[in-house]
Amino acid sequence: MHFTEVAKAITKNLSRPAHAQTVHNELIKDNRFVLVGRGLYALAGWGYKPGLVRDIIKDVLKENGALGKEEVIKKVLKERYVKENTILINLNNRALFQKNPNGTYLAI
Predict the structure, then answer these.
(1) Number of domains present in the structure of the chain
(2) H helix and E strand count, the chain
(3) 43 strand-pairing partners
(4) How much of the chain is in helix, strand and coil states, percent to nearest 5?
């Protein structure tokens, strides 16, 4: 749910105004919620892990071994609501990921 939707739901159910930016700040601080996209939050209890896109890529590669670009994208998109280009830009970070001659990637 987007933090502005959360603020609207709070305002509707509690009959008092909730400011979107305040809700956003509180969601960021609370470990029960994970930022999974641009302003989108999910419950950590649903299995979402906190971290940046590069952290999710690293976890995917460590769990699955070397993977091709399309497989990495597919698995990361199950964890984060981001554009494919965001994943590709992070995947091209040579300090974190190694591209093998066969086109697969490994976390360093």
Answers:
(1) 2
(2) 5, 5
(3) 33
(4) 50, 20, 30
pLDDT in tens, 21-56: 999 999 999 999 999 999 999 999 999 999 999 999
Which uninterrupted H or E stretch holds 105?
A: strand 104-107
Taken as a whole, the chain contains a residue count of: 108
Question: What's the pLDDT at 10?
Answer: 94
Does 27 share its domain with 60?
no
Distance CA 97, CA 105 (A): 7
- Between the two ends of the chain, the Cα-to-Cα distance in Å is 33
Q: Are residues 65 and 37 in the same domain?
A: no
Global pTM? Answer: 0.85
